[in-house]
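This section describes the prediction task in plain terms. A model, or a person checking by hand, is given the sequence of a single protein chain and must write out its three-dimensional structure as a string of tokens. No templates, partner chains or ligands are provided. The sample shown here is typical of the held-out split.
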Amino acid sequence: MWKRRAVADAARREALANDVLAFLPPLYATALRLTRHPADAEDLVQDTYVKALRFSHTFEPGTNLRAWLYTILHNTWRNRQRDAARAGVDVDSTVVEQEGTRPEGPMMFDTPERILLRATIDADLQAALDALPDVFRQAVWLRDVEEFTYAEIAKMLEIPPGTVMSRIARGRKLLFERLSQGEAADALRPELAARRR
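The expected answer:
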């Protein structure tokens, strides 16, 4: 009896492992958005995959595998952030000082996600999205790009659904305001240039 159960569990775990492979690219894109560093994003996705296999017995077949994986990913990210906040900071002060004195400001690294988004999203929208505070950007991204429901996002981020709705509404409002300001500035540029002549 126990041998049959072990074989069935192994088969179920193998099937789940194969199903999870299909979600690795979107998980990586989200991990990259969270970590903003390719190696860290790869580590985060790997940890998510390992945890999904380790806890495959907790997944209920027939439920939303994608939402379950994103929940694992976000929980793993949150735990890493919490652990990093507790750890001491080791900083090479000369590098930090040099970065702070650059005339154009601190260097921003182009991640694959940023490159892809710039290629597919209008520059003004990209700038407005990048300027959003993390909590709003995360909620807007999960809803409008990843197309998760409010309930799924609430479960992933471990916040009430009302907070999810509020963050999405505020994030969208901030996006609209930034984009509207950009359009107003674009409309004024030809007028200002004409006045200078």
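For orientation: The domain at 122-197 is CATH 1.10.10.10 (Arc Repressor Mutant, subunit A).
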